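Input/output pair, single chain:
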Amino acid sequence: MVYLVAVSLLWAFSFGLIKNQLAGLDSFWVATIRLGLASLVFLPFLRPRKIAAPLAIRYTLVGAVQFGVMYVLYIAAFRHLQAHEVAMFTIFTPIYVVLLDGLRERRLNWLALVAAALAGIGAAVLKWQGGINQDHLWGFVMLQGANLCFAGGQLAYRRMRQQHPTGSDAGVFGWLYIGAVVTAGLLTLAWGDSAQFSPTATQWGVLAYLGILATGLGFFGWNLGATKVSTGALAVSNNLLVPLAVLVALLIFGETAPLGNLIGSMAIMGIALVVARRAENPSPGDS
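Output:
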C-alpha cells in the first residue's frame, strides 16, 4: 500500500497542472511527449536478452493499452471537463478493477466488490454540482474508456509478474513504455494537430514533471504496488487519488470544496480499506 499511497500523492497535482498549464495544447501530442519522456527513464534498464520475445510482446501490448490508449483518452477528456470533474469521474475505476478481475477468474469476490463500491461512494461524497450536457457526456465517455484501459492494464501486469517473476521490474517496464509510445505516436500521426503544439518554457517544465515523475516513476510505482496487494485493496487505492486531488486543488490551485465532504470522503475510504483487508484475508466463517 505504501507505493500506491505515495503515487496517489504524486498524481494529485496532475489534474490541476494539465487543466491550468497545458490548456490549448493538442492532447495527442501532450500524451505522446509525456509517454516519450517517461520511456527515457526506463530504456537504460532494458535487457532484451533476459526476457523471451513472446513475453516482451505481451508486456508491450499491456503498455499500449494501459498507458498508450489510456493517456490519449485521458488527456482528450480535459477538453470537455474541468479538472475536478475529471477527478470525480475516475470513481468508476475500482469497480472496473474488481469486475475485470472477477471475469478473468470466473468468480466474484463480493467483499472486494463492496470495498470498491465503498471507495466509489467515498469519492462521490465530494459530489460534483454541475449539470450534464453533450460536451460533458463526451468527456465522460472518453474518461471511462481511459479508466477501463488503466484497470485492465494494471491487472494484466500484476498477473504477468506473478507468473513470470524473472527480470527486474524496471527492465520489464521499459517494454510497457515502448508499447505506449508507439501506440500514442501512431494515434498522434493519424489525428494530432502539430499546429496546436507550441509549448512555452513553463509548459515544457510541466510536461517534464508529468512525463518523468508522474508518468515514468508514478506508473512504475503504481504497477509495482499492484503486485503486492489484493484486488480489493488495489481497487480502493484507485480512488485514494480523488480526495487527495481535491485537497491539492484547495491548497495549491485555489479552488473551493466543502471541507465536510472531504472529511467524509476520506472516512468512507478508510472503511473501504478495512473491507478490502477482510477480502484479502477472510475468516474461516466467510469461506
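The radius of gyration is 18 Å. The chain has twelve helices and no strands.
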